[in-house]
């Protein structure tokens, strides 16, 4: 291999016969990750093919989506007519809104918190959520101004991507404590109700709701979507948001239980061996599916680490949860990369560096996979061009899971035959 070039040659596990992936009781040959086009994950043809009870549940879910979409659109149309506009103006841009360490209890008692909360109320959609990449705290939304900042198209309105909606709910809950105000309380509860409405019949969540089509309608582990929602609802169920009614807390408990079941059902099994999760999973079969053009279907080191950490934080994990964690840690250990460093989107060979994990790993071979915007699957990171920068192809997130595993596993039943601590090395390149 030429100097400076890298081809990530991975240890291939021979599963025997035709490789198969299985989740949620479904099994398909590897590569056949969806029985429908990605634009029709929840299209009429697929819904009609379901068993009657399952079909009825998904039809109700889609009707809820359609109703909330109509409500959001009607509200915006009324604003545009009243203000004499024909097209939404983009909202103020902010890369991501997240509650920072400076937002202490003292800070939330101040005027800045009240002003920010007042502004945030204006960016909540009638359906109950918020968009991403929009500054929801600096100023109020103007009539006819979009809920999002990315052009005049109706997209990501609202969404859970980039921590959207869950962070706004947390902010308003904290603001209500610092400045008791029924508007903040009611908006936070409406946001929680929106989380309930957006939950799939099988317990997972899409990237956004109302449904937007394409990969947005997949069960979304990418960017921590499902786990963020479950963390928020767990806090609701545990009474950490004190003003939430008891009935809502009870519903949150049920939603979390269903969400955990969906995570467990979505864990991919290959050749009878339980592994980890992908970034997006087909909402009906729960098999990993593709997302953006440069995100082929595969297993994900980063998203799986975040998902496993959530399972490890459950206060009373049952046998299924323990089994899932044990298997995931075994997979992390088997797929770590040593001798390479990845910083500022550049991968370099550094003796003693690591471990790293690939963002996407091919299901049937365990090899890291990559893609440019043309969607062609690559096995050589050096072939990346338009997606070499701006997308984290490697990460270290599973290391913290492995570090915590021994303490977590101590004293738990069902951990017999726990992961082998052996660390496969990346073979020498030639």
Question: For the largest beta sheet, what order do the strands appear in spatially?
Answer: 2-1-4-5
Strand content: 5-15%
Topology, number of strands: 13
The main β sheet shows up as: 4 strands, antiparallel
Helix residue percentage: 25-40%
Give the CA-based shape: globular
Topology:
Elements: E1 20-23, E2 26-29, H1 44-48, H2 52-82, H3 105-108, H4 111-122, H5 166-178, H6 182-198, E3 219-220, H7 225-237, H8 246-266, E4 269-270, E5 273-274, E6 280-281, E7 288-289, H9 301-312, H10 319-334, E8 340-343, E9 346-349, E10 357-358, E11 370-371, E12 377-378, E13 394-395, H11 397-409
Antiparallel strand pairs: 1-2, 1-4, 3-6, 4-5, 6-7, 8-9, 10-13, 11-12
Q: How would you sum up this structure, described in words?
A:
There is one protein chain. The longest helix has 31 residues, at 52-82. 37% of the residues lie in helices and 8% in strands. The chain is built from eleven helices and 13 strands. The radius of gyration is 22 Å and the shape is globular. It has 430 residues and is of the alpha+beta class.
């Amino acid at each position: 291999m030429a100097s400076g070039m890298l081809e990530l040659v991975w240890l291939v596990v021979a599963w025997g016969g035709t490789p198969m992936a299985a989740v949620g009781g479904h099994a398909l040959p590897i590569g056949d990750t969806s029985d429908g086009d990605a634009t029709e994950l929840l299209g009429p043809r697929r819904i009609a093919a379901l068993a009657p009870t399952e079909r009825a549940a998904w039809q109700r879910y889609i009707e809820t989506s359609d109703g909330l979409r109509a409500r959001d659109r009607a509200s915006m149309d009324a604003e545009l007519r009243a203000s004499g506009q024909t097209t939404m103006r983009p909202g103020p841009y902010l890369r991501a809104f997240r509650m920072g360490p400076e937002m202490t209890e003292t800070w939330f008692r101040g005027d800045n918190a009240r002003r920010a909360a007042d502004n945030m109320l204006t960016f909540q959609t009638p359906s109950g959520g918020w968009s991403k990449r929009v500054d929801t705290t600096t100023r109020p939304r103007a009539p006819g101004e979009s809920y999002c900042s990315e052009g005049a198209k109706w997209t990501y309105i609202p969404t859970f991507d980039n921590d959207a909606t869950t962070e706004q709910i947390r902010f308003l809950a904290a603001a209500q404590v610092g400045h008791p105000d029924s508007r903040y309380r009611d908006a936070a509860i409406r946001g929680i109700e929106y989380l309930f409405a957006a939950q799939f019949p099988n317990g997972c969540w899409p990237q956004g709701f109302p449904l937007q089509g394409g990969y947005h309608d997949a069960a979304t582990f990418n960017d921590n979507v499902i786990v963020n929602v479950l963390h928020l609802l767990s806090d609701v169920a545990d009474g950490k948001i004190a003003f939430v009614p008891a009935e809502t807390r009870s519903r949150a408990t049920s939603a979390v239980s269903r969400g955990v079941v969906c995570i467990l059902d979505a864990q991919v099994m290959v050749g009878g061996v339980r592994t980890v999760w992908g970034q997006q999973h087909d909402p009906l079969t729960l098999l990993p599916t593709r997302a953006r053009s440069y995100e082929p279907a595969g297993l994900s080191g980063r998203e799986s680490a975040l998902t496993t950490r959530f399972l490890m934080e459950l206060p009373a994990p049952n046998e299924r949860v323990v089994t899932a964690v044990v298997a995931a840690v075994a997979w992390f250990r088997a797929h770590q990369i040593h001798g390479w460093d990845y910083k500022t989107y550049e991968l370099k060979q550094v003796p003693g560096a690591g471990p790293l994990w690939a963002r996407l790993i091919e299901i049937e071979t365990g090899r890291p996979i990559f893609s440019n915007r043309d969607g062609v699957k690559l096995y050589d990171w050096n072939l990346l061009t338009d997606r070499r920068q701006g997308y984290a192809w490697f990460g270290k997130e599973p290391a913290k899971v492995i570090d915590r595993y021994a303490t977590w596993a101590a004293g738990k039943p069902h951990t017999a035959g726990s992961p082998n601590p052996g660390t496969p090395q990346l073979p020498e390149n030639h």
